[in-house]
Amino acid sequence: MWCWLRSALRSLRRSPAALLAGGGRPRAAMERAVVRCVPSEPKLSLRFVLPDGSARHMQRDQAEPLGRALARIAANAAKGPAKAAKKSKKARAEGDPAGEAAAAPVVRLFSRDGEAVAEEVPNAAAWQDGAVLQIGEAQYRVERNPPALTELRLPRSLLAGFPVCPKVNAEFAAPQHCLFRWYLERRPSAGGETAGGDGPAWVEAAGSERVFTPSNALVGLRLKLRCTPGDGAQRYGPPREVESSGPVEAGPGACTFDSRHLYTKKVCGEGSIRAVSYNILADAYAQTEFSRTVLYPYCAPYALELDYRQNLLKKELAGYSADLICLQEVDKSVFADSLAPALDAFGLEGLFKIKEKQHEGLATFYRRDKFSLLSQHDIAFSEALLSDPLHKELCEKLAKYPLVQEKVLQRSSVLQVSVLQSATDPSRKICVANTHLYWHPKGGNIRLIQIAVALSHIKHIACDLYPSIPIIFCGDFNSIPSSGTYSFISSGSITEDHEDWVSNGEEQQCSMPLSHPFKLLSACGEPAYTNYVGGFHGCLDYIFIDKNALEVEQVIPLPSHEEVTTHQALPSVSHPSDHIALICDLKWK
């Protein structure tokens, strides 16, 4: 976790103006003694550079008395001169004092107010920020838990006109408090060499934001980022630099979402909520031979690659200025390494729920300055059906149909439920649900059981745990508007003789009446399609809202049919998924 280079420790001295004591008085520049002390860990670490230039890294028990740690530092400090003396046989033979074993220097620790810290004080309490460590004549300013970068990474693919969002992980710091400086690789001169010798020459770019969007003029150039970690309290740690692995490449030109961004340039007002639901096409499914040759043979192979699609996705999602984003088919690594860092830079906090035995799952993002997270209530349908008493009656009914029951229990589908509280009006809470139901065209009965479990679980949260809380239910329901699942959700009930109960053939049929108490409305209506591939197009995705508590302000128009079919179908070089995002602005009634 501590990737501090010896040279960084040696050279990173704070200026007298920057090195302030508690009262704000400037102090003389000193070397740094960096202490990392975390309550959950038994040991603290101490790093400093001795006057002879040798770096020291020590691990000490937090409960150990300070005196023992100081004695160990003294012994360490004496090692360097002692080793040098051993090499000088001549000095020892001539009786030169330098040839004798070096005496250990006096080592003391002083508090910020100049008092010597008692040797019986435990290490955890002794090593405070701003204290001074004295080793002989050398003095060190103690920096306890200073901001430190643990990871700094740029995306592998950079496209002109698309935001570059670095992945920043830090300890005792937060990305929003870090300082960012972007640099451009200087173009080679006419002779083919950069003006500066062997390595690339860098020129600082305009702007110092966390996100950088390269222009078309930068195509062919690499980028470099210098990040200085900060904690929001005017404390900064050592900077780190990272260079892009490749140059900026030309973007695809117009994308299907460009015209939609015209409606979403600004974040909604205080009483409104902009919600997005989007199946983003998991890389696990896009990068198979079957996908390339059968499902999406019309799509250029490079446009199916994850790095390329992530560029489009990040620009698309950031441009919607959403308050809530519910995503399906999110690869675990895509969430952690790409979407969460990118959307965090645009003010959105992310939550992830992986499918059972899968590499992809669901992600819900919410705008931090509008909402805070109160609780999470995620479930796997199969597990909840078997173990949660809420579903006992449904489970008993399903047991009469063992073939269907087996199918239901084999599925890995999950439900993500997050209860959010308004940042400006704590009395306003909302239950945000997100799911991706079973995909098979003949799986209507399976989807009915899954949605029954989902709505029963949501009822427990929105009626029992948080009475009368409104719900927003997003997802890829894999159900067209004429299906039993859609009818059940929107009407509140389904009869035992609905045709979807026998959708998987007579031998795998089941039938039972179902009901739920909610009054749900498809906020975006019933578009002609939300999924458009070579062999199928239809409406499978919805944002259902509690129509007793919420109403629709506006629905952001879907891309035109001409835009969708420019490259025959989806995905394409200008659209990153085989689905289309649903976007609507809602307001409290």
Automatic annotation (TrEMBL):
Top-level taxon in the UniProt lineage: Eukaryota
Taxonomic source organism: Chionis minor
Cofactor(s) of this protein: Mg(2+)
UniProt entry keywords in alphabetical sequence: Exonuclease, Hydrolase, Magnesium, Metal-binding, Mitochondrion, mRNA processing, Nuclease, Phosphoprotein, Transit peptide
Family: Belongs to the CCR4/nocturin family.
Domain 2',5'-phosphodiesterase 12-like N-terminal residues, every copy: 146-249
Metal-binding listed as a keyword: yes
Protein known as: 2',5'-phosphodiesterase 12
